[in-house]
C-alpha cells in the first residue's frame, strides 16, 4: 500500500509541476505579446523623434487640451490594440463648435451626460494621430506612467504613433 501511495504522490507532484509550467508559460507568452511597444512623438511632417514612451497592448492613454472656442477642458481617450490606436471616448464639459453633439459622430457608440459634462463613447480607428499644439491650450499626454507636457516643445504639429520595440531592448 505504501508503494502505491508513493507512486500516486509522485504522479500528482509531476502533474502539479506540469500545470504550473504550462500556466507560467501561458502568462509569460501573453505578457511578452502585450509588452514591447512604444508611443513615439515626432515632429510632423519632418518626423524628427522628440520622445518615446513605453506602452503595452491594451494600455490606454489620453490627450487633454483647452478647447479653442469654449475654453473648457477636453479629454480624448485612446487604447492601443494590436499596435493600432483606437479612440474610445471624448470627455468634455460643454457643447461648442468642433465638439460632438450626439452619438452619431464617426465611431460613436453612445452618449452619456454626467454631472461634469458629457462623454461620447466610441470605437474609432485612428490611422494617423496628429496633434497641433499651442501653449495657450495646455496640451497634455496622459500615460500609465504619468503626464507629458506637449507644450515643452514649440507650438507645432506632433505625430503620435505606436511602434513595436525589439524584445532585447
Q: What do you see in this structure?
A:
This protein is α+β, with helices and mostly antiparallel strands. The chain has 2 domains: 1-34; 36-164, no CATH class. 20% of the residues lie in helices and 45% in strands. The protein contains 1 helix and 11 strands; from the N terminus they run H-E-E-E-E-E-E-E-E-E-E-E. The protein has one helix spanning 2-34; strands at 37-43, 49-55, 60-66, 73-81, 84-92, 108-114, 117-126, 129-132, 140-143, 146-149, 157-164. The strands form 2 sheets. A 7-stranded antiparallel sheet has the order 6-7-5-4-3-9-10, with no helix packed on it. It is globular. It starts with a helix and ends in a 5-residue tail after the last strand.
Topology record:
Blueprint: H1 2-34, E1 37-43, E2 49-55, E3 60-66, E4 73-81, E5 84-92, E6 108-114, E7 117-126, E8 129-132, E9 140-143, E10 146-149, E11 157-164
Antiparallel strand pairs: 1-2, 1-11, 3-4, 3-9, 4-5, 5-7, 6-7, 8-11, 9-10
Report the total helices.
1
Residue fraction in strands = 35-45%
Q: What Rg do the Cα atoms give?
A: 23 Å
Beta strands, count: 11
Ranges where pLDDT stays below 50 over 5 or more residues in a row are 1-34
Strand order of the largest sheet: 6-7-5-4-3-9-10
Mean pLDDT comes to: 81
The structural class is: alpha+beta
Amino acid at each position: 500500500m505504501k508503494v502505491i501511495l508513493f507512486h500516486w504522490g509522485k504522479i500528482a507532484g509531476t502533474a502539479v509541476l506540469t500545470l504550473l509550467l504550462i500556466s507560467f508559460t501561458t502568462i509569460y507568452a501573453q505578457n511578452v505579446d502585450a509588452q514591447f511597444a512604444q508611443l513615439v512623438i515626432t515632429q510632423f511632417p519632418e518626423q524628427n523623434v522628440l520622445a518615446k514612451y513605453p506602452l503595452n497592448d491594451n494600455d490606454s492613454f489620453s490627450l487633454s487640451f483647452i478647447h479653442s472656442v469654449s475654453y473648457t477642458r477636453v479629454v480624448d481617450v485612446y487604447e492601443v490594440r494590436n499596435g493600432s490606436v483606437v479612440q474610445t471616448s471624448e470627455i468634455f464639459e460643454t457643447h461648442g463648435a468642433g465638439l460632438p453633439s450626439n452619438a452619431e459622430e464617426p465611431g460613436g457608440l453612445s452618449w452619456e451626460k454626467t454631472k461634469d459634462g458629457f462623454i461620447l463613447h466610441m470605437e474609432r480607428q485612428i490611422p494617423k494621430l496628429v496633434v497641433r499644439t499651442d501653449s495657450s491650450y495646455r496640451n497634455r499626454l496622459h500615460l500609465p506612467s504619468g503626464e507629458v507636457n506637449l507644450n515643452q516643445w514649440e507650438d507645432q504639429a506632433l505625430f503620435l504613433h505606436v511602434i513595436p520595440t525589439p524584445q532585447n531592448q
